[in-house]
Amino acid sequence: MKEKVLLGMSGGVDSSVAAILLKKQGYEVIGATMKLWEKENNIQDEAKNICDILKIPHHVFDFTIEFKEKVIEDFAENYKNGRTPNPCIQCNKYFKFDLFYKKACELGCEYIATGHYAKTEYEEKYKSIVLKKSNSERKDQSYVLYGIKKEILPKIIFPLSDFKNKEEIRQIMKEYENRNNVKLEIYKKSESQDICFIPNGNYKEFLINNGNIKMNEGNIIKSDGEVIGKHNGLINYTIGQRKGIRYYL
Fold this sequence. Notes:
alpha/beta; Rossmann fold; two-stranded antiparallel sheet; 6 helices
């Protein structure tokens, strides 16, 4: 009997190739997309289309309530306190490698998989499976996965761990599409560098509209109490920042 693996499908080339590789390795692949933000229907539709092409089932898990609590509110709270958050770390910790794993168990899957560039290996020093860098120095994403629980690491597969660059992944997808007469041209899809719930990159606007944060002006004060200027809202800066500060008297 084939081992089942639940694969996170985003509609992009990385997760699509991950599915192709897992099927080739003999796994029974089930695709799943997490609905984390109410404006993500296009991602779910794209992922569903790809799963249909790859002939694997597709599920959608609605985690919008949990995502708002664990990621959105944490994102806003950090900015309120002058810190710069990394929402991807929170998302990986609580969703992609926690709630997603629990869903996999409910579906009878032995493993979960994603299109991340990272790898897991047994380390004799620790007598356990550990997280390591992928073979791609430019694309490695292990640094945002450190929050994964060690108990779950043995249950994770990173199909892209041994690839050197993105071009190899695109080539696999291109060959698959040509061989199967697929017209989606998934291999041409550009990468998103923005935060998933802020696709336009305007985090300040997002915080005002969703984080109950106001752009209040305030004084810039030296440690000795001297007021040397004004700023146009604390969320525009982080602790220790120097570059880009345009204060005025």
